[in-house]
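Retro notes (design track)

What went well: tokenization of the new backbones is finally stable.
What didn't: we kept losing track of which sequence belonged to which structure.
Fix going forward: every design gets posted as structure first, then sequence, in one message. First example under the new rule, 650 residues:
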């Protein structure tokens, strides 16, 4: 089994040790304890708060040589403690260089001090008074510090490069450095830093928690980096200030871990940051690549501990398109529905049209397209009768789906036409010499193309646009008939994945529609996904279930998200899927459907290369004019070979 490092992960920790102001011996002991805990948990890089050895709240005690020398001795002991450990430690301490005192982050590893980074921006307003005691990094006259005969790199221009993991480049800024208009971390990221650390104190005031969280998340997103922020705990609280120990780890805008506030005992939180993903994201961002180079930094080598196989410490969603939280999911559905209706309304305004045509089957996708059309017409003040819906019953149509489609159309007040396709398709079978008893791809596609021909011709009759109903997941798998349901004049669902369509229709039933219409929408949500191109069972039930043929959409949407959004390789997608779906699907089943996904995704690109217009909804989109540009003749063998090397055991 591969180590987690092999997949690109680095275990990052933030600690908030219990603290007593000016009690260096006590603070050293607490730091040693959290270091021990972090090592047991296979932490590779541990960040502790600003001035963690002395306390941030020492005030004029920073003028006392005794306190500064005691902190220096404690640092030497901590450095010695790292000998023989894999862990690298970053801790805050006051450091004297010549005749100036600096508020510093000290990097310790391999039994020694690797480098010292002084704070640049010293707050000196409101409750802060740092310029009374400390000098800014800008005032330093030397790029090293003499420490018992050893020249230790010193300065705000230091970056720390893992010699065994080149993608791990660590930059450090201290507290206020992040809160200014132009944080140093932005320039560090521009020079390649993928991990940004911030030892901080940050007293608590009303509303600051949320601002701090968004600040850390936002900076990690702007820098396309991991960002760890370790804040001083309530042991610092003295006189007029209260500290909460609010510490966080974020990665490219995603909050991975966060401490509980206002706890007096020591805390440690860990998260596995994905350095491979960050590197890939930066490679795809042209604006990041062309950012101003900025100042040059000195690189200090260090060794990053290997992260062994085991539990992955980061959030991992089985349904990345569908939030688990009810409120968040409802908010996302509201936003998506607004995007879809606005897009269609714009197209109608541009064309001056007042009519649209769409086929409704009683399934999820066509129902969502109908609901979008209804609300778009309402927004434009157009009569709903201008929405011409057609039910086109064929050999596989069931009473349930047809009934739902026709009743819903009536309740919504849209135009409805019923045109059975059986006779036309039988005539076509006779023309091409295809037996009706042969239920092959020709049997299915002939029905799909007959339906599209009718929709297009009716659109010509009424002067309307044909609204496409196919969704993002179907486009990824090519689960659509070329020049049939694959084609329309505007595809309103093209950016919505299948796992989210059901929730969108359910949200519409709760928030946008009421009464009998809402009840029908709920029944549609409970209907199996099917194109209904094969005859129903003897009991009149759906016989052709899509997921029996192409696989579970919950798996395919997971695969799609990780392939297109993050460009993860097949083996990593398999590794992640085996963890998130453990207990629901065996690793052998996951591997089977992952092979199907790759084969279909590559072989069906020709359908995506000529898609109609449709609104982009999320970060994963397959429009050939926007997010996904792939040759139709690309070979899949390289990706399948990687899957061939897996044993199906996850």
């Amino acid at each position: 089994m591969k180590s987690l490092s092999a997949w690109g992960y680095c275990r990052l920790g933030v600690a908030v040790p219990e603290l007593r102001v000016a009690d260096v011996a006590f603070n050293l002991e607490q730091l040693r304890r959290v270091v021990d805990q972090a090592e047991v948990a296979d932490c590779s890089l541990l960040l502790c708060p600003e001035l963690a050895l002395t306390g941030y709240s020492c005030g004029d005690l920073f003028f006392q040589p005794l306190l500064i020398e005691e902190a220096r001795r404690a640092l030497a002991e901590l450095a010695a403690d790292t000998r023989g450990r894999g862990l690298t430690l970053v801790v805050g301490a006051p450091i004297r260089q010549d005749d100036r005192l600096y508020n510093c982050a000290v990097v310790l590893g391999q039994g020694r001090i690797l480098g010292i980074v002084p704070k640049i921006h010293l707050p000196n307003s409101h409750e802060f008074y740092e310029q009374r005691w400390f000098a800014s990094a800008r005032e330093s006259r030397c790029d090293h510090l003499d420490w018992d005969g050893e020249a230790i790199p010193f300065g705000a221009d230091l970056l720390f490069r893992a010699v065994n993991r080149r993608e791990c480049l660590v930059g450090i800024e201290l507290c206020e450095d992040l809160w200014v208009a132009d944080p140093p971390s932005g320039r560090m990221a521009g020079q390649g830093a993928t991990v940004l650390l911030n030892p901080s104190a940050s007293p608590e005031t009303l509303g600051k928690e949320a601002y701090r969280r968004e600040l850390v998340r936002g900076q990690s997103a702007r820098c396309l980096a991991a960002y760890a922020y370790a804040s001083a705990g309530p042991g610092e609280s003295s006189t007029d200030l209260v500290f909460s120990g609010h510490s966080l780890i974020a990665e490219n805008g995603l909050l991975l871990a966060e401490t509980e506030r206002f706890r007096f005992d020591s805390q440690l939180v860990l998260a596995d940051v994905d350095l491979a993903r960050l590197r890939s994201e930066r490679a795809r961002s042209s604006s990041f690549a062309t950012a101003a180079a900025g100042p040059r930094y000195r690189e200090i080598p260090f060794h990053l501990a290997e992260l062994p196989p085991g539990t992955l410490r980061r959030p991992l969603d089985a349904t990345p398109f569908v939030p688990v939280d009810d409120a968040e999911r409802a908010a996302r559905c509201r936003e998506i529905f607004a995007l879809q209706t606005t897009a269609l309304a714009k197209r109608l305004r541009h064309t001056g049209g007042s009519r649209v045509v769409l086929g409704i089957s009683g399934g999820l996708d066509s129902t969502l397209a109908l609901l979008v059309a209804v609300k778009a017409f309402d927004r434009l003040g157009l009569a709903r009768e201008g929405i011409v819906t057609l039910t086109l019953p064929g050999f596989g149509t069931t009473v349930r789906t047809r009934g739902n489609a026709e009743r819903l159309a009536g309740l919504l007040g849209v135009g409805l036409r019923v045109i059975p396709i059986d006779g036309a398709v039988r005539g076509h079978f006779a023309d091409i010499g295809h037996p009706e008893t042969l239920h092959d791809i020709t049997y299915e596609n002939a029905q799909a193309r007959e339906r599209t021909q009718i929709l297009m011709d009716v659109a010509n009759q009424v002067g309307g646009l044909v609204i496409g109903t196919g969704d993002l997941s179907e486009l990824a798998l090519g689960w659509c008939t070329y020049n049939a349901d694959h084609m329309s004049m505007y595809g309103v669902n093209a950016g919505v994945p299948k796992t989210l369509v059901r929730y969108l229709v359910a949200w519409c039933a709760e928030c946008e529609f009421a009464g009998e219409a809402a009840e029908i929408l709920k029944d549609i949500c409970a209907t199996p996904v099917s194109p209904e191109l094969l005859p129903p069972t003897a009991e009149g039930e759906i016989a052709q279930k899509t997921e029996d043929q192409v696989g579970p959409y919950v798996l395919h949407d997971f695969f799609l998200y990780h392939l297109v959004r993050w460009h993860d390789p097949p083996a990593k997608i398999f590794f992640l899927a085996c963890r998130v779906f453990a207990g629901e699907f065996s690793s052998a089943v996951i591997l089977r459907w992952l092979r199907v996904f790759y084969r279909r995704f590559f072989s069906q690109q020709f359908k995506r290369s000529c898609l109609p217009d449709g609104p982009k909804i999320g970060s994963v989109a397959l429009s050939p004019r926007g997010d996904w540009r792939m040759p139709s003749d690309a070979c899949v063998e390289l990706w399948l070979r990687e899957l061939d090397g897996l044993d199906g055991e996850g």
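Added context from the reviewer: The chain has 21 helices and 20 strands.
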